[in-house]
Amino acid sequence: MTEASSTEAAKARRSDATRAAILTAARERFAADGYERATIRAIAADANIDPSMVMRYYGNKEKLFAAAAEFDLRLPDLTGVPRDEIGARLTGHLVDRWEHDDTLMALLRAAVTNQAAAERMRRLFAAQLGPVVTALVADPAEAPVRAGLIATQALGFALTRYVLCLPPVVALDRAAVVAWLGPTIQRYLAGERAE
Amino acid sequence: MTEASSTEAAKARRSDATRAAILTAARERFAADGYERATIRAIAADANIDPSMVMRYYGNKEKLFAAAAEFDLRLPDLTGVPRDEIGARLTGHLVDRWEHDDTLMALLRAAVTNQAAAERMRRLFAAQLGPVVTALVADPAEAPVRAGLIATQALGFALTRYVLCLPPVVALDRAAVVAWLGPTIQRYLAGERAE
DNA sequence: ACTGTAGGCCAACACCTGTTGACATGTCGA
DNA sequence: TCGACATGTCAACAGGTGTTGGCCTACAGT
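^ Those are the sequences you sent over. The predicted structure of the assembly is below.
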């Protein structure tokens, strides 16, 4: 055995490093180029292996993307936070997630032209943002709309800052982003309903 | 002469109909599929002509896109509107533009994976939204940031509703969109600065 | 009626894509 | 030591892409 444990079924394979390298390269390429322009060949070259290895380990491009786009927003528990600070906290957290992880970017860029990626994005927000909003909102029936509106502003910010790179939006520092967007998120979360 | 005027230099060529058909088909394809998945062959098939015609009339794919993505937001003059209604008016107008014209969609879908399209999007907002915001804002130095923030919310709404199709956002009717997003735009436009 | 030319089609090119199978190498248990 | 299996490389495939040039056809101006 090359690893510590002796009786465990999950032994560390020698190929795990390669698998990880492929996944990292895939995330970077998908994030930078989108689904169709990110080629298996380019990903393999980045990972310093042959394109056929990608196929052996992940089956096909679709499955490779599915593996590379696995993502957890890691939303914090906000039930204890003072009500009027929630918007700012949520905004700050989302900015941090965008800045330090390629995965969301890969998902966003791909989702615009790829149906499967779009479906994944929908599930991500429904499964991860949905519950958090439901727990914070007075009337649970309003939760989906409010979560949707938050997605509107969060994704719009990411789109203009990281993808389209509109200069004034790129220029904002973290504090400014929280100060401007925080109240918007706050209103979508807890403001009086507007329908 | 086939047309009314006799001495005019701009005579209507027989190919004008074809040119227009190509442009319409191109807009639809770019809007539905994005830049790389919208193929010249598919566009030509939609326009019922040969792919080589597209090349003859527009040179190459890049120039075809440039011609198809020509867009005017047609922002109304808002200087006479009561200050607290401006956000709602602007929001309503933008929704209408999105709903009745493929071009913005083509631009958005392409801009996510195509540098030239992204640059075009930046120019669109700088040249068309910028001046309107400058005219409405107290301190002209704040105009770019405020226009950027508006872009953030406007594009985020379009992204989630028309591209990603998040169900709760798709379900909103026009009045609900204006009621929810109007105040946000209003605050970005005229609210106290938050930096 | 004749002819030049604009409008249109066809076939092909060079290239790139995802994907596959055959083959070499190295590692580890028996 | 030997053989089984994991790891990796190479070359090729079938199909799709933007793009090009040659050829046909029908109409406009004389």
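Confidence is low (pLDDT under 50) at residues 1-9 of chain A. Chain A is about 65% helix and 0% strand.

Shout if you want it in another format.
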